[in-house]
Inverse folding.
């Protein structure tokens, strides 16, 4: 692994549902608890205090929950509570947001499990067995084991926003065997190509529906992490912005979940983004659109639209993003796009990862863009 990475190996005996690792906020929180010494010592204090202070009788164990809080330097809390008028004391009933969390973590934390499986992206309906009986409520019965034949049910709980001062990049990875020296095999790790998730925590004899809780909303500022996925394209825009009387502004969008499609996420479990660049010249204004396909899901050309009414474009942006997902990472049809004005596409050079601003492929790419924007000399 690179020096700026730490691999988290999820053991086969782990009872944590694998779908937890589909959520980048959950992965980032897990990385913080496991790797950051400040957070980990606080988390481990729960078990330590339980072992030292639990009281056991013939039929039960009792323990008053206690832990050692982590250091909270420069932390910001968003709370609900009430102010006592006479004493001036503020009583906190609920913490609904934690922000500016300081951490000591590597830049990248990949997660590996032998249950992560590579394959082809599936479509159609899922062959999940129906439960023997209907689940009429969200009542949790800890005395029952989860039934292997029931579909997991997500139980909505109030969310708590969680934001790191310096967010890290997390991914799911699979193990790849590559030929080693003298015909031997060595193990390496690569970006996950596709997932066929399965989990072993339910039992055949169980009777209860499997339940997952969704109560974390990660608000970390991850803009810089996602922008790194557009390095070659951003170099093209940087050169464009240096031209006289040309103004460029960037905005990052995330593709929405649409139906059962998983294309709103890249194959490593992160959100798939779309970079919009608004270009204003002396005579016209354009939007240039680029989709994150760093997982090599599908090659798609850059879309350029000459825009007369930016407000009209903004009003239709959510619809546009949904159409991209519905069309399996293809741009909406020309008949739809023409309502905004003239439409162009710009093909990518073949070796995007090896481009430099002095390479012939990059110069030709730049000239094609200049021609579309009416800037060719």
């Amino acid at each position: 692994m690179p020096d700026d990475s730490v691999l988290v190996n999820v053991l086969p005996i782990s009872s944590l549902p694998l779908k937890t690792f589909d959520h980048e906020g959950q992965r980032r929180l897990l990385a913080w608890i496991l790797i950051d010494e400040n957070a980990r010592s606080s988390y481990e204090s729960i078990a330590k205090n339980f072992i030292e202070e639990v009281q056991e009788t013939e039929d039960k164990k009792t323990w008053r929950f206690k832990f050692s809080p982590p250091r909270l330097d420069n932390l910001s809390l968003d709370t609900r509570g009430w102010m006592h008028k006479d004493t001036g004391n503020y009583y906190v009933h609920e913490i609904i947001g934690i922000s500016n969390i300081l951490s000591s973590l590597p830049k990248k934390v990949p997660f590996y499990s032998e249950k992560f499986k590579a394959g082809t992206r599936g479509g159609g309906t899922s062959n999940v067995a129906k439960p023997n009986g209907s689940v009429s409520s969200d009542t949790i019965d800890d005395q029952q084991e989860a039934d292997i034949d029931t579909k997991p049910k997500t139980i909505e709980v109030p969310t708590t926003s969680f934001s790191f001062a310096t967010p890290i990049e997390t991914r799911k990875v699979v193990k790849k065997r590559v030929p080693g020296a003298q015909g031997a095999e060595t193990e390496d790790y690569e970006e996950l190509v596709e997932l066929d998730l399965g989990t072993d925590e339910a039992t055949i004899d169980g009777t209860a529906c499997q339940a997952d809780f969704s109560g974390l909303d990660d608000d970390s500022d991850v803009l810089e992490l996602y922008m790194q996925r557009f390095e070659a394209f951003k170099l093209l825009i940087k050169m464009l912005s240096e031209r006289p009387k040309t103004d460029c502004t960037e905005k990052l969008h995330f593709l929405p979940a649409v139906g059962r499609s998983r294309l709103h996420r890249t194959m490593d479990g992160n959100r798939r983004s779309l970079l919009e660049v608004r270009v204003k010249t002396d005579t016209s204004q354009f939007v240039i659109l680029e989709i994150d396909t760093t997982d090599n899901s599908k090659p798609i050309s850059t879309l350029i639209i000459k825009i007369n009414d930016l407000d009209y474009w903004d009003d239709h942006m959510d619809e546009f993003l949904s159409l991209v997902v519905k069309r399996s990472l293809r741009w909406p049809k020309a008949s739809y796009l023409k309502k905004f004005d003239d439409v162009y596409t710009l093909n990518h050079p073949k070796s995007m990862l090896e481009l430099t601003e002095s390479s012939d492929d990059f110069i030709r790419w730049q000239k094609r863009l200049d021609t579309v924007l009416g800037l060719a000399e």
Summary: Confidence is low (pLDDT under 50) at residues 119-136, 191-215. The two ends are 47 Å apart (CA to CA). Helices lie at 24-35, 37-53, 223-227, 231-241, 310-315, 317-326, 334-337, 360-372.
